[in-house]
Predict the structure.
Amino acid sequence: MDQETFDFIVTGAGSAGCAVAGRLSEDGRYRVLLLEAGKRDSNPWIHVPIGFHKLYTHDTYNWRFESEPVAGLNGRTSYQPRGKMLGGTSSLNGMVYMRGTPADYDGWRQRGCVGWDYASVLPFFRKAEDQERGEDEFHGVGGPLRVSDQRFRNEIIDAVIEAAVQAGIPRNDDFNGATQEGVGYYQGTIGSGRRWSAATAYLKPARNRKNLVVATEAYATRLLIENRRTVSIEFRTPQGLQTARCRREIVVSGGVYGSPQLLMLSGLGPAQHLQDMGIAVLRDIPAVGSNLHDHFNSYVAWRCSKAITLNDLENSRLRKLAAGVRYALFRSGPMASNGIAGHIWNDFSSQSYKDLPSVGQITVTDPINGSDRKYTMPAGGRGYTRPPSLIRCAAACPGYRYSTSTAVIPCGCRWRRGSTGMLAMSAFLALRAHG
Ligand SMILES: Cc1cc2nc3c(=O)[nH]c(=O)nc-3n(C[C@H](O)[C@H](O)[C@H](O)COP(=O)(O)OP(=O)(O)OC[C@H]3O[C@@H](n4cnc5c(N)ncnc54)[C@H](O)[C@@H]3O)c2cc1C
């Protein structure tokens, strides 16, 4: 592959990169190279929905980033898992199918992002989707991404949903439909009881395409720019440093951390910072690495009087065996679930919760993760966690305040507009990439 020429080169085979490379290579007109720093997605736990919890801190398939100490967290660091394999974070994530609200997209359009209003993006969501419930004005069928209802219903979640309904929050069975507000079970990017990552959706059907080259363990280290045009890319492989040339475009899709890192390594970024790292500045672009948004989770653990939690499964060989047999025979049961079952989204501004946020969202349940007691729940006994999960981007909704509160159980973590971070290189990383 060294010194070969392609029409398009895509760096990073994650949610975005797989879709872009898959679509670009579809009609055979273009020769496409897809570079992925991680390995193939061959570990079986990647494809079993409950395996999500085994990948959360995996040292092969996860970059396992850690933030610098955060003043707002009393000086603690924050763990940042990210997928490092074909499919990227879509091979590691919670598989919750959640597009965001129309207002998120319309807000982007209002700020000048032509083509990003909800009416413009909806046809692409429908085109991507293979919705188990069938087609309607919000959903499509026959697309590469399978979306299905949870195959495992849990009586704890049923009870939480019922309680929320009694508290006046409307029942909602489709968070990607007319409104996101309400309470109910999530749908997942799961097909036939298996994770449907972007790699499964877009690369599997492309397996036999001669015009798509997928290179794993190929870590892009520099875009090579001539006369203000990116003409080739340098990448590190187990065989050494290689380059590939590009006739048309290089698509940088290394994710929220990988993309700005590659731009900075290529001399595109905040000039002072690049100079401090010993990188020659090609163009001073202060925005690269800035304005980082993430959703913040904090966990509340509840003791459960019945042995029905996923933690009970984790702690019992017999239950694990039964769940394994059930999954193997019927692709159902707790192993077919991501363990993130339900959702409450409520617009508190419409009620008299003066001190609570305009919008709060919680993910109703999440199993205690036996393989990762540091980052999720410490309890080894019976119980379940209810991580309040904030997944809207503050920039998309100016004026909104964020909190983990719900109508049922307020708890005290709040995001305000302006709670953003930034990404910077460490001297070590800069040296290692170039070294
Ligand atoms: C723990 C967790 C749970 C989540 N749960 C959900 C959920 O339930 N539902 C949901 O919708 N979203 C969820 N998300 C978010 C969602 O998965 C991500 O937003 C999405 O996958 C990001 O896609 P991406 O293409 O931008 O990046 P990624 O999918 O992260 O892809 C980036 C890829 O680029 C590769 N890469 C990076 N740098 C280089 C380089 N220099 N050279 C070559 N390759 C490189 C990486 O290895 C990776 O494979 C979750 C995220 C996390 C971390």
